[in-house]
Amino acid sequence: MFNEPVNQIPSVGEKTQEQLALLDISKVGDLLFHFPFRYDFLELKPLEELSHEEVATIQGEVVSQPNVSFYGRKKSRLSCTIQIGVVAVKAVFFNQAFLKDQLQVGQTVTLTGKWDMHRLQLTVHKFHRQSFEEASSIEPVYHTKGNLTVAQLKKLIKYALKSSVEEIEEILPEKYLHNYKIPQRQTAVKELHQPSSKSSLKHAKRRFIYEELFLFQLKMQYIRRENKAQSVGTQKQYDNSVLTEFVNRLPFDLTGSQKRVLKEILDDLNGEHRMNRLLQGDVGSGKTVIAAIALYATALSGQQGALMVPTEILAEQHVESLNGLLGEQLNIELLTGSIKGKKRKAILTRLENGEIDLLVGTHALIQEETIFSQLGLVVIDEQHRFGVNQRKTLRDKGLTPDVLFMTATPIPRTLSITSFGDMDVSVIDEMPKGRLPVETYWVKENMIERVHQFLVDQINKGHQAYVICPLIEESDQLDIQNAVDVFEQLNATMPVSINVGLMHGRLSAQEKEELMRQFANNEIQLLVSTTVIEVGVNVPNATTMVIYDAERFGLAQLHQLRGRVGRGSEQSYCILLADPKSENGKERMRVMTETTDGFELSEHDLQIRGPGDFFGKRQSGLPEFKVADIVEDYRALEVARQDAVNVMNEGKLELDDEYSKLKQLIESDPLIQERIFD
């Protein structure tokens, strides 16, 4: 029956089949893998131990005839008295008038619901016409859709267990079951649907947590291996002594973390396979200099480099800093949408002729007219800002260029090895020596005047400042500060010597670029902005940031915003204006004032918000696990990943028959083909 359509179950008609399809259940076997999303654990306690409004389970005797009253359309209230020892308890059932005939005086019943200790009343949501000992003490709770009831679904799952559970095949080799003391697949499925005890349920969950994570990590490692096998790289042959001399001449020493990451990247450039690497590093950790060294190595090998960034101003800033580092050694050119006419044509001609070593730009780099002579390395900054197709278009500009993605968004390790498991990941996790951490303070609204005076004092010292607001204009629904109001208020109250600017998402790209140029040139001293300021702006003279209604932002976003200051040699400050009402909000403010380590913050953020919200539901790329939770089960994730790496390195999928079922599952997954050279 396992592979039979669900309509082969006697009670399943066309309508039920349609409802089951909404849950991705089309075969009888699918019912077995539609696991409960939680369990209600029924536990009998004496009445005196129950807390007010807790969900409680009681057992007693029905001592009064049920009374039903109707109100509204299709609404009812049924009540009866239950005797528990010497205490009479009122049981109330809403919209369950049909139970009147099932509750008989003298009958022993088990009821679960919300306890009202003042009224001695239980609002019942689960009812068993039997004693507690006879009722199941662990109740599985399932997701349903459409008109399908939980009772119907449970009945169908019970049928599937009886008819098909023996057909479930084991997919894990015996050594994993033995090493991790986890049950067979058949046993685990039975326990998840019909738990015999808390202990058995725990082991069944452990089994599927490991299986899901192991299978996913195997897929990631498989994709990674296949991508490497299909990608013969453009092996870079260059004079290492010239590169070493360049690194030694830098006006600063590389941190240990930078040296480690640089070696990983240079090994990729020297290797026979195409590089597909993500470089993670907190704001100001020195990713750009590592990219510059890799681009210089590429140029020394006679190949060209490309650096794609999300905005024109960021492209200009990169060209400026790269010219400072490499201007004497390389021909560096800028290409953006603003560069037109003869100048643009001249750049494109020189690029195609191989006269440009390094091209820095925005989306202009992926236009059809942009042709490289021999593209050897593509660096994509803030890679999450570009779509898959845009990244692929640039990568395809060369025959087989190496690709280095960079991001300043600190991604927790658990998400990194899940979302980017098919890539090599390098992490710069220490800051350059001498960089002063940004001092962060959390203040309430009543200190606003002191905050404004602090802004004036900083600007009078020759510095600049940001003020960040969550909304553009006033909202009826949300009583929070907005950029327009704050701009008008500050413009009216600041000394005339202070020029105040306003930036938000409704401005055109050109207007935003112009505002940022004015701010970078210190023509604007105080910039009021929404979160469009978040990524990639480098104004070392900006030393202060004030964030209004800071409790409305996640930790990762607050950290990204704070990263806009502290880029020069002067002490910088971030002031969080917030009055959070929730414990989560207070916790975020506390954590922000205690650490400037982006990776530590990202772990806190992940704990608070969960993985879907961390990346944003639509673009997270995270798998939907049925049992596993990558935050709670991070230890199992690490173990599963190491096991998957070992399986691939040892060629077990191809060489060992015990792994044949796993190989079959992996190769039949449609996502595998999508992720191989997306």
Automatic annotation (TrEMBL):
GO function terms (MF aspect): DNA helicase activity; hydrolase activity
Domain Helicase C-terminal: 447-607
Cross-referenced CDD domains: DEXHc_RecG, RecG_wedge_OBF, SF2_C_RecG
Key words, A-Z: ATP-binding, DNA damage, DNA recombination, DNA repair, DNA-binding, Helicase, Hydrolase, Isomerase, Nucleotide-binding
InterPro entries recorded: ATP-dep_DNA_helicase_RecG (IPR004609), DEAD/DEAH_box_helicase_dom (IPR011545), Helicase_ATP-bd (IPR014001), Helicase_C-like (IPR001650), NA-bd_OB-fold (IPR012340), P-loop_NTPase (IPR027417), RecG/Mfd (IPR047112), RecG_dom3_C (IPR045562)
Matching Gene3D superfamilies: Nucleic acid-binding proteins (2.40.50.140), P-loop containing nucleotide triphosphate hydrolases (3.40.50.300)
UniProt-recorded name of the protein: ATP-dependent DNA helicase RecG
